[in-house]
Structure formats: structure tokens, C-alpha cells
Amino acid sequence: MITVTDLTKVYRQGKREVRALDGVSLTVPEGSIHGIIGHSGAGKSTLVRCLTLLDRPTSGRVEINGVDLTQARSDALRTARRRIGLVFQQANLFDSRTIADNVGYPLELIGVDKAKRAERVQELLGLVGLPDSGDAYPAQLSGGMRQRVGIARALASDPDVLLFDEPTSALDPKTTNEILDLILSLKHLGNLAVLVITHEMHVVKRICDSVSLLDAGRIVESGPLVDVVNTLDGRLAEALLGIPAHNPVDEVGGTLVDVLSSGSKAATPVVAHTSRIVGSELNIVAGSVEHLAGATFSHLRISVPDGTDPQDVIDELRRQGADAKVTDPRDLLEEQA
Description:
Elements lengths: L1 E12 L2 E13 L3 E6 L6 H8 L7 E6 L2 E2 L5 H8 L2 E4 L11 H11 L4 H14 L15 H13 L5 E5 L7 H14 L6 E6 L2 H7 L2 E6 L2 E7 H4 L6 H6 L14 E8 L7 H9 L4 E10 L2 E10 L5 H10 L3 E4 L2 H8 L1
Helix pairs in contact: 3-4, 3-5, 4-5, 5-6, 10-11
């Protein structure tokens, strides 16, 4: 388990202070995958460096299975860092070393003998789907294969936590899905807690159990995936369940209303039922269906014609178990600009 408590990092630029992290707290239990998302400049890179103590936090704690890395010094800190396996955006392999030597490098550093090292390396290469690549060099492998090697190397020291920093942003869609499937399989390996730093919504949708939104150094939304998307008011819900772009100016009059249904309700024709009850034709103008963390979510945008009270429609949709709210077309145009 990884536990981060009130983590703060302040950089000083002359007389000016830059608060890159501002009281970040989160917990990632073993056997789970937690995603951290945020735009460029949100503090994701600083968080990675502070979690691994490559950059010491100004205040706060980073604990791995109850051991506070921020209090560790020298040899104790090096030992504690081995509990975190780190996979970078680029695999950062040693070009002059074979794949086997790259994977075995962490074991070499801690003095594991050659025979045991070779056995562990072969085991790890088999785990990531590269059992016959030990004698190759990084330049001979594709980007996805190099990333698999990076994952194998991160696992070499038998860590408690795996930390991925933008693991798929340099990969094509097919290779991305292959790497995500591999990451998904790792959470069941031993008692690993997996933390993924990303700006890609596809990554969160595909593999994460829970997610946090980092903005200007603060976590502004956080929780299990099925909880954070089960409302129309959250930024995470909008990002993960967004409706494809359309021009609301071209819609046929009326008032736009967004409708969110989940679970068994997502397969229920709530809009058609509501249309009959309020006695008005409600047109679906856009929508999307997502399957996240084992649950189905339906996000629809409907047009309520003039002469029908939108609040009556919203009240009826809510009676049927959906969430609903009026959407301002001007906000949609700003989002799509």
C-alpha cells in the first residue's frame, strides 16, 4: 500500500514561491490501480519525483506499507526506494547493455549473484511476453517491447508499489492497449499497489479502479471510478463520460438537458418513458455509452421543446433513477472552441 499525506512541494525562484504540490493526500491499496490525471503544469511530474524521493517534499509524508520514506536517510532511503518500481514515459534503457542486463541491473546493484540474477531475469522476461529477447539490445526492439522491458526491470527488485509515469503516451493505439493489458494483469501479481500518472482518459477508462484529478498542485476530485463518474456535476465525469462534439446551435430549438444513467438503468429507455409521461417529444441529439470498472454508463443530451417545462422533464428522469440537469449551449461552444 502507498499512502501520501498532505504532500507539499514549494520551489523558490528568487523572492517568489511556486507551490507545485499543495497538500496532496491519497491512498492506493494493494491489488488496485489508481490513476492520477491532470493537464500540463498540474504538478504530475513533481508528484512523481516526490513519491520516489528524487525530489524531497517540503512537507508531508510518503509511506510504503507503513514505512515513511520522507524520514529515511542514506542507506535506509535506498532500501526504501527499492519498494517502488518506476516505469518512465520512455523506457530509459541502457543502450550498451543487453535486454537481460537491463532487466537485471537493479539486482546487480544489490549484489544478487549471477546465477540467481539470470534466473530472475528470465522469469520476468517471460512475464512481460519477451522470453526470447534477453540477448537483444534496446535498439533492436520496438517502442512497445522496450516499454515491456522497462516494466520487467521495475519488477526486478520485487517492489510493493509500481509507479507508471505516462507509460503509453509515446505508443500507437494497438501497442498502448497491449501495455495496458499487461499493467492490468500486474495488480494481481503478489500484493502490488499500482499508481499511473497520465493525461490520457483512455488509460483511466481501461485499467483504473480509482482516480484523482490533480489541478494546480491540488487533488480537486478523487474516488473509485464508478463513484466519480456517477454524477453530472464533476469534472472527472465530464472528462471520462464526455459526449462527442456537436454544434448545439444547429439543434432543433428547445432546452438542452443532459441525462446520466448507470448500471441496469443505462439499458432502460428512460428518455422514451419520460417523453410519454410528460406528453412531449424529447429528441436525443448526442450521447455516449461507456463501460467502466465493470459498470455501464449512458450519457445522453436531449432537446426539450419549447412549451414543455424542462424542470418537469428533469424531475421525471430523476424519478426513474437517472441524473439530469439543464445544459447551457454557450458552455458547450466554449468547451469545443
